[in-house]
Specification:
mainly beta, Immunoglobulin-like, six-stranded antiparallel β-sheet, five-stranded mixed β-sheet, 95 strands, myosin heavy chain binding, MyBP-C_THB, Striated_Muscle_Regulatory, actin-binding
């Protein structure tokens, strides 16, 4: 198996790309190097290019360019740019002018006419190098130096791929379009191009093959790297598709990568073959990391990051490592360290950890190579550290159900198990009952050893315990269906009802069957015994029903769900009887009928009729009727005694309706035949100024009695206009003794002075009648919201422009929520002022207001709605205002947020000050501050000032918070005091080279003078940096040295008062080696050693020594003692016959001394009394003179056929063999071949002729002697 190749680090960050231009055009190739001072060379056809009129070479910083002017056909060769050890190749292709288009017909010549030097694809050719491989790496596309022979266009290694969404190439620039030209020797009509995709997205690679010249369908194979066939990897993330277009005879092959992962990146290859034809194309896939948090894959922690890209792009293969993948760079364990990161994405598809934990150790390398783990050692270390108990699984289950699952309502869930026997029967139970597959609700699936139960559209009924039964074994789990929050789709609306009416408060929620809670003024409502409240559900609608509302039912009603709430106000008013039509005064003549009629709002109300305070009883002439809301009193055959005041009194209400009955008496007198006309207005119901009032929309009827003989003619006029009966609203008629003028539906323009003129031969008479039309007033202007409170607002409006002819007696106001359609009346009695304070609102809710004007006629139309407003109260005053610091010209104040903030929050704080004894408050700064502290500057020194703070929100400023007394602007003297931190109260120990940063706070006002001393002397500013502020002093040493040790003294001084503090710093280093290590004594297997302490202890105590020994033969050192505190020791258990040397390291709190102290002499361990004398043996001589064990045999062969002569020989050492013919050495003649194998010697004579006959001899020679064997060879001619 070939070893994966390593990518070299490219010196280019931008590489030139192959281009195609027309003859005579100018082309520019650009490149960018990683270093600005890199030297760059440009080559054409492996030869360096020098700057000239033809070639312009420029370099600016790290940008380099090559410009080729007036391109010609000889410029269509290969080019390269070289920087350091990196070389990038590219091509320039020349496109002929339009007039030369017929020359392309030659491209379709049969393969027999192709010149022999054309490039022919070979199956043995290696695949193309990756995009960022060095130029000298092997490439599957051979370079072609001939400009005359037609060649297959080389694939540009730098070409960008398809987009991640479509995988197409329509949006690519011209020089990045896929090469769709037909190769003369290849099979591809369109090659797959390199592409880029983001993790989780899809990409498609397309390859097209022209089938015109093919007898059968070509075979296409897709590879990743050099060896992995992707046909076996088809599945969830990889799909291979193909189709054939009969019109163009083109085969299209597609590779779909679905939901790409980071390890999909790498080099790919597409191979197509058809009988004796073969072609291949290499392309790359680059996978970019997604911005969202990825699921944790343990394999990612043991892959090396890419060096060439500088990023963390993983180059492992599609489920395995790629050849040529990047295994250089550094290991990235950041994913293992992010313990606090919430993992959102799902687990990896392949659990490599599970595979490694159950695999034998001999399979580790194979698994690591298969799943793309390049750092096996790091993986094994992690495997060893993490101890994971394997769950015991039953024999029937390879993988059981998890203990519990959770799914949201309406979603789909899939339960999965793995069984040991693929043919085992599996049953699924829900709460102990077997589940039957019913339509799309439950779906059972079986794939190999895996069994799936899919539950679609989960509901609350699916929240249960599930069991999977295989034989006698069971696997249990629980499914929890998470119900989504119930939202209120349609809110409650405010309502105002009359006492005793039925109330329905209705809202709509987002889920059917959801549980809601009803509350009134913060108290939960329940179904009581009296059934005061009823709760109704109708799908998503929830209704609260109050059968008979009372005054106690007024309040705020709240409906609450687990996802929201809605509030509305219910107002219950006492019933007030409204008069829709009042009784009117009547004037009738004798024998006429008088009818008094009124209409009230309640049809159940009864009433009593009175005449001059006496109850009227029904009789033959008097009739009393009550039909619905209409009450009538009818008097037939009116008589003079019927004249009087009539009153209707409703039962149970303290008001009455009154009217007057006037009796018109007709006197009959004898008059002469000539009687001048006369108008009688004495008995008309007129006002004192002869004005008749009529309500707009009502009928105006003027019945004027007239006399005259003969009967006079009547003319009605208004101003200069004569009124006639024209069939419209105006009607004029005359009867005997009366003239009647009627206007149907009086309007405002009908108002004015009407004149009636009567004439006959005896004379004429004239009378003027002033008619005034009264109406409801015009609507007022849109109200204005002056201010808002926590649950109230102050609204103001202007009176209507027209009062309707009657003075406005008051106003009626209504309000509603912004999103509601129901208006609620705020007052029933007319409100006489034009400013009103509306209360009982909900804080934070948006409202609108409108106003009606009321006069004696009725109510106007409503005004336009006011601007929406939100009842919000200012917050309470800030608390805890105090002086934090003060100086001669500044003061620092601080406070806490108010106790009561409200729903509007706080926009900021305003700070003001004034001199004591004045009321002129001056803002301390423009605008507001969001902080709860402030520093006010440029104050007069010695002045007594008062300060206050107010919180502001949209409702305005809060009450101010003030200091209890005035403050004098003068700095307060404070004694200097140094506050040494606890860790600096003892010696501060640092190692040589470490940074020292001491922050020592102090106090004192005014600002004290700060001085640092070291061992009583001023510190060196070149070595030590000091920075002082008002509250602390910082001593900083960037790289500490041994000489920085000492006692540092800090002094803070204000005038004659000062404070001091000492800080001891000890800089420690590694100790020096011990001194004078010597072997004091040797006895038996023991050695006594002695040494002296080191001269340099590293500025700290020596805490021990490390003693090591080594055998002089191997000089491998072994530790005998560690942390040994004495300066002498005994080394025991030494081996007899070995000679030992020793060395000692000194140890302090920093570590071992860099150099040891070796012993000057060695110690030889020997056992006294016995001397070992090894025996002397005579060495056996294995040498042997050569001897032929099988001689050569005389032979007779036929001319023209190869002949062989064989023999065998033995001898030690191996003898040298020489062949002779007729005593002539033939070892160097080409006609003969000599073989020697396992002592058998063979001489082969190629196609002998009679001349080759003779005596052949084989001679064997070595240092012990020689031997010769010979034979005769006869060569017979052919017959």
């Amino acid at each position: 198996m070939p070893e994966p190749t390593k990518k070299a680090v490219s010196a280019f960050i931008k590489k030139p790309k192959s281009q195609t231009v027309e003859v005579g055009a100018t082309v520019v190739f650009e490149a960018e190097t990683e270093k600005a001072d890199a030297k760059v060379r440009w080559q054409k056809d492996t030869k360096d290019i020098a700057a000239s009129e033809k070639y312009a070479i420029s370099a600016e910083g790290n940008k380099h360019s090559l410009t080729i002017n007036n391109t010609a056909s000889e410029d269509a060769v290969g080019y390269a740019v070289i920087a350091g050890g990196s070389k990038v190749k590219f091509e320039l292709k020349i496109k002929e002018a339009e007039a030369k288009a017929p020359a392309k017909v030659a491209a379709k010549a049969p393969p027999a006419e192709i010149p022999p030097d054309a490039a022919v694809p070979s199956t043995d050719a290696p695949p193309a190098a990756p995009a960022d491989a060095p130029a000298d790496a092997p490439s599957g596309a051979p370079a072609n130096n001939s400009t005359d022979a037609p060649v297959a266009p080389a694939t540009n290694s730098e070409t960008n791929g398809h987009g991640p969404e479509t995988g197409g190439h329509d949006s690519l620039p011209e020089n990045h379009q896929p090469d769709t030209r037909q190769d003369l020797t290849g099979l591809f009509s369109e090659k797959p191009q390199s592409g880029e995709v983001t993790v989780g997205e899809n990409i498609i690679f397309v390859a097209k093959v022209c089938g015109e010249s093919l007898l059968k369908k070509p075979t296409v194979r897709w590879f990743k790297g050099k060896w992995m066939d992707l046909a076996s990897k088809s599945g969830k993330h990889l799909q291979l598709k193909e189709h054939y277009d009969r019109s163009t005879k083109t085969y299209t092959f597609e590779m779909h990568i679905v939901a790409a992962k980071a390890n999909f990146a790498g080099g790919y290859r597409c191979e197509v073959s058809s009988r004796d034809k073969f072609d291949s194309c290499n392309f790359d896939l680059t996978v970019h990391e997604a911005r969202a948090v990825e699921g944790f894959d343990i394999r990612a922690a043991f892959r090396r990051t890419s060096v060439s890209t500088g990023g963390k792009k993983r180059m492992s293969g599609l489920g395995s490592s790629t050849d040529g993948g990047d295994d250089s760079g550094e290991l990235d364990f950041s994913a293992l360290l992010k313990k606090s990161m919430v993992q959102v994405s799902s687990e990896p598809d392949v659990d490599v950890w599970e595979i490694l934990s159950h695999a034998p150790a001999s399979e580790y390398e194979k698994i690591a190579f298969q799943y793309g783990i390049t750092d096996l050692r790091g993986m094994l270390k992690r495997l060893k550290k993490m101890k994971k108990e394997e769950k015991k699984s039953g024999a029937a289950f390879l993988k059981k159900l998890d203990p519990a699952y959770q799914i949201e309502k309406g979603h789909k869930i899939k339960l999965q198990i793995e069984v040991a026997n693929p043919d085992a029967e599996v049953k699924w139970l829900k709460n102990g009952q077997e589940i039957q597959p019913t339509g799309r609700r439950y779906i059972f699936e079986s794939v190999g050893n895996k069994r799936f139960l899919t539950i679609n559209n989960c509901s609350l009924a699916d929240d249960a315990a599930y069991t999977c039964v295989v034989g006698e074994e069971k696997s249990f789990t629980e499914l929890f269906v998470k119900e989504p929050p119930v939202l209120i789709v349609r809110n409650l609306e405010d309502q105002m009802v009359m006492k005793g009416e039925r109330v329905e408060l209705e809202c709509e929620v987002s889920e059917e069957g959801a549980q809601v809670k009803w509350m009134k003024d913060g108290v939960e409502l329940t179904r009581d015994e009296a059934l005061k409240y009823r709760f109704k559900k109708d799908g998503c609608k929830h209704i609260l029903i109050i059968n008979e509302a009372t005054k106690e039912d007024c309040g705020h009603y709240l409906v609450k769900t687990n996802g929201g709430q809605s509030m509305a106000e219910l107002m219950v008013q006492e019933k007030e009887l409204e008069v829709y039509q009042s009784i009117a005064d009547l004037t009738v003549k004798a024998k006429d009928e008088a009818v008094f009629k009124c209409e009230v709002s309640d049809e159940n109300v009864k009433g009593i009729w009175y005449k001059n305070g006496v109850e009227v009883k029904a009789d033959a002439r008097t009739h009393i009727t009550h039909i619905g809301r209409i009450h009538k009193l009818t008097i037939d055959d009116v008589r003079p005694e019927d004249e009087g005041d009539y009153t209707f009194v409703p039962e149970g209400y303290a008001f009455n309706l009154s009217a007057k009955l006037n009796f018109l008496e007709v006197k009959i007198d004898f008059v002469p035949r000539q009687d001048p006309p006369k108008i009688h207005l004495d008995c008309m119901g007129r006002t004192s100024d002869s004005t008749i009032l009529v309500v707009a929309g009502n009928k105006l009827r003027l019945d004027v009695p007239i006399t005259g003989d003969p009967a006079p003619t009547v003319v009605w006029t208004k101003g200069e206009k004569v009124l006639t009966d024209s069939g419209g609203r105006v009607h004029v008629e005359s009867t005997k003794g009366h003239c009647i003028f009627t206007i149907e539906g009086a309007e405002r323009q009908d108002e004015g002075v009407y004149s009636v003129i009567v004439r006959n031969p005896a004379g004429e008479d004239t009378a003027d009648i002033n008619v005034k039309v009264v109406d409801v007033p015009d609507p007022p202007q849109a109200p204005r919201i002056l201010s808002v409170g926590e649950d109230s607002c102050v609204v103001q409006w202007d009176p209507p422009l027209f009062d309707g002819g009657q003075p406005v007696i008051g106003y009626v106001l209504e309000r509603k929520k912004k999103k509601s359609f129901r208006w609620m009346r705020l007052n029933f009695d007319p409100y006489k002022e034009t400013t009103y304070e509306a209360k009982r609102m909900i804080e934070g809710m948006t409202y609108e207001m409108r106003v009606y004007a009321v006069n004696a006629i009725g109510m106007s139309r409503p005004s336009a709605a006011s601007e929406p407003f939100v009842p919000i109260a200012p917050s309470s005053e800030p608390i805890g205002l105090c002086v934090d610091d003060i100086s001669d010209t500044t003061i620092s104040l601080k406070w806490r947020t108010p106790e009561k903030v409200g729903s509007a929050g706080i926009d900021g704080y305003g700070v003001e000050y004034c001199k004591e004894g004045t009321d002129e408050w001056i803002p301390a700064f423009e605008g507001l501050t969001e902080r709860t502290s402030v520093i006010i500057r440029d104050l007069p020194t010695g002045e007594k000032m008062q300060f206050r703070v107010r919180a502001f929100n949209v409702a305005g400023p809060s009450p101010p918070a003030s200091l209890p007394q005035a403050v004098t602007i003068r700095e307060i003297m404070q004694r200097p005091k140094i506050w040494i931190p606890r860790n600096l109260r003892q010696t501060l120990i640092k190692k040589v080279g470490e940074t020292i940063n001491l922050v020592i706070p102090f106090q004192g006002k005014p600002r004290p003078k700060v001085t640092w001393l070291k061992n009583g002397e001023p510190i060196d500013p070149k070595q030590v940096s000091v920075r002082n502020s008002d509250t602390d002093s910082i001593l900083f040493i960037r790289r500490s040295e041994r000489k920085d040790s000492g006692v540092y003294e800090l002094q803070v001084q204000i005038e004659n008062v000062e404070d001091k503090a000492n800080v001891t710093i000890q800089i420690v280093d590694l100790p020096g080696p011990p001194l004078n290590l010597k072997v004091a004594d040797v006895w038996g297997f023991n050695v006594a050693l002695e040494w002296k302490p080191p001269k340099d202890n590293g500025n700290c105590d020596i805490i021990g020594y490390t003693i090591q020994k080594a055998d002089k033969k191997t000089m491998e050192w072994y530790t005998v003692f560690e942390q040994y505190r004495r300066t002498n020791c005994v080394v025991s258990d030494l081996i007899m016959g070995n000679e030992y040397v020793f060395r000692v390291f000194a140890i302090n709190m920093v570590g071992l001394s860099p150099e040891p102290c070796p012993s000057k002499d060695s110690a030889y361990i020997q056992k006294t009394g016995i001397v070992y004398k090894p025996p002397n043996y005579k060495e056996h001589d294995f040498s042997e003179a050569p001897k032929f064990t099988h001689p050569l045999v005389n032979r007779s062969v036929i001319s023209g056929y190869n002949a062989t002569l064989s023999c065998s020989v033995r001898g030690i050492p191996k003898p040298k063999i020489t062949w002779y013919k007729n005593k002539m050495d033939i070892s160097n003649e080409a006609k003969y071949r000599m073989f020697s194998k396992q002592g058998v010697l063979t001489l082969e004579i190629r196609k002998p002729c009679p001349f080759d006959g003779g005596v052949y001899m084989c001679k064997a020679v070595n240092a012990s002697g020689e031997d010769i064997v010979e034979c005769k060879l006869e060569v017979r001619p052919r017959e």
